[in-house]
Amino acid sequence: MGQIGSLEEAYAIARDYASEIADGMGIEALRRTFPMFVSDKDISADELSPPEATAIGTFLGELIDSWQDRSQSIAKNIKRSLPATYLTAMIAKGVTGGNFGDKIAEANPAPLMATETRPTDLGLTNWSVAFTAGDVAYLIGSSTGKYIPTQTTGERKFVVLIKDGLVTVDTPTPFDEISVEFDAKNYQPFALNADAKIAIDQSNNKVVYTARLYPTIILPGVGVDMKVKATDTVTTDVYRLGITFYEKTAYSSL
Questions:
Q1: What is the pTM of this model?
Q2: What is the rounded average pLDDT of the residues 220-242?
Q3: Looking at per-residue confidence, does 111 or 109 come out higher?
Q4: Quick one: residue 253, left, alpha or beta (phi over 0 = left, psi -120 to 50 = alpha)?
Q5: What is the 3-state secondary structure (H, E, C) of 68-86?
Q6: Pick from 168, 254, 173, 184: which is nearest to 218 by CA?
Q7: What count of other Cβ atoms lies within 10 Å of the Cβ of residue 117?
Q8: Cα–Cα distance, 157 to 232 (Å, whole number)
Q9: Burial, 90: exposed, middle or buried (Cβ in 10 Å; 0-12, 13-18, 19+)?
């Protein structure tokens, strides 16, 4: 999908997607309209109330403005991911019946790197990944098992990773193949474009690189892993940029 003109346009597109889901369109058929990675698990999506839509739009607008000062390319990719972001909010409401207008945040490391044997309270505070050339490394989940987001009522999180949202800073993308697997859907592994090792932005004395990725929606109770084939031996931060819609006690330790 090309550039989204406005928050209102993005929300209108997402409402159309939600309506199609309500009318029985399978998620696989929806993917042919708007490419994204998401489980084939049956989902429901409810329309946001005007206050919810306004609050979420305010958050997203401020997020885009913030990224404009750091990386115009990333800001642009957030805009391109807005329909998937609004759709994730509507799925969260459809599943829980809750209001998510004030329960939205940027994705953080700990839950995305958790598995059955590495719980969400692991306390991870960075996005560091150790790569060994020729070996597999995990960006979500681990070799011990998929990341399975909690289904505990009041603690559920609904995450959408943005388009091309795998970002490194000052280190060229250290992998060239990606595989995304859900419990109910495995996507064909794909190779990155040659430009993955070419900087997209250079500002504030930082060089930014991104890897190609469709918006990726991660739902409670659905196992997912994202693994890559390393091209370099290096330990570096790989930011998985995204948005989280969460229930009230999901961050109860704060």
A1: 0.85
A2: 90
A3: 109
A4: alpha
A5: HCCCHHHHHHHHHCHHHHH
A6: 184
A7: 8
A8: 33
A9: buried
